[in-house]
Design goal:
The protein is α+β, with helices and mostly antiparallel strands. The chain has two domains: 1-34; 37-258, Immunoglobulin-like (Sandwich), CATH 2.60.40. 15% of the residues lie in helices and 34% in strands. The chain has helices at 2-34, 61-65, and strands spanning 42-46, 69-71, 73-77, 85-93, 98-106, 125-131, 146-151, 156-160, 164-167, 172-179, 182-189, 212-221, 230-233, 253-258. The strands form two sheets. Strands 1, 3, 6, 7, 8, 9, 12, 13 and 14 form a nine-stranded mixed β-sheet that branches. It has a five-stranded antiparallel β-sheet with strand order 2-4-5-11-10, with no helix packed on it. A hairpin with a 3-residue loop joins strand 8 and strand 9. The model is unreliable at 1-33 (pLDDT under 50).
């Protein structure tokens, strides 16, 4: 009987330890995603004196003054040929919005899913990652940060609380123009903070000089496949799993708004 009681006690202690260990690991993982962000790829973004027209023409003066930054980090897929894809971007801002100019060389543009809320990542699209207060942390199914998938038809998708996709077309206005195999995208992005609620009225943040925003940009490239063939981003992501932008805002770069 003593041996039996000892065995039961041992099993009880083991089970308590196992539960504690599991909780500890989970808490550590959450802590890592919630930790203070380390600023990398700090980019200064010049203010536009006049709001760019969203027409994909990039003929405003601010675009002539702004510098190009590469989209050249392979996040998913096999190594690609520069003749198949090259990408770069510019940034500007007004008090009302962040403006993004994207130039992509891609010989095939795919839009095979009519339903904007199904498999949107498998069509060609620009994906813009925004963390309004540059705080980093987890944002997979919340609005601590946003991962806007901007489709060829102009629909904008991100994951919402409840683990469901939603359209955020009111957040991003876009237009692209293609000549030969080069597409120029122009985007106007209204910036919302982490108090955004899908079920209430929300107002975008007014931007000002000196503000820092977490930022990254990527391109989903699909030439002729059922699934995207490559996912190419603007910032280096360490480790083997590089598809973290839609989950972890700590991997975003940082932009600082200047006059």
């Amino acid at each position: 009987m003593k041996k039996f009681k000892f065995l039961l006690a041992s099993i009880s202690i083991f089970m308590q330890f196992a539960i504690y260990a599991q909780v500890t690991i989970t808490a550590t993982e959450v802590s890592l995603l919630s930790s203070d962000k380390i600023e990398v790829q700090l980019i200064e973004v010049k203010q536009a004196l006049e709001s760019p027209t969203i027409d994909g023409r990039m003929n405003e003066a601010i675009w002539q003054k702004s510098s190009w930054h590469p989209i050249d980090q392979l996040w998913l897929g096999r190594p690609y040929d520069p003749n198949d894809f090259t990408g770069r971007f510019k940034l500007s801002w007004t008090k009302d919005a962040l403006y993004v100019l994207v130039e992509v060389q891609d010989d095939v543009l795919m839009d095979q899913h009519e339903d904007a809320l199904k498999l949107w990542w498998d069509d060609d699209c620009v994906e813009v990652f925004i963390d309004e207060d540059n705080s980093g942390g987890e944002h997979q199914y919340n609005h601590n940060a946003f991962a806007y998938h901007v489709a060829l038809d102009g629909n904008v998708v991100d994951m919402a609380p409840g683990e469901i996709p939603r359209l955020y077309n009111q957040h991003v206005e876009s237009k692209y123009v293609t000549a030969n195999n080069v597409s120029v995208w122009e985007l106007k992005i209204s910036i919302y903070d982490d108090t955004f609620n899908d079920d209430t009225m929300n107002s975008p943040v007014e931007l000002s000089s000196g503000k820092k925003i977490g930022f990254a940009i990527a391109y989903c490239d699909n030439d002729t496949s059922k699934e995207r063939e490559n996912f190419i981003g603007s910032i280096f992501v360490s480790g083997t799993d590089k598809n973290k932008g839609w989950i972890d805002a700590n991997i975003f770069g940082t932009i600082i708004l200047t006059e």
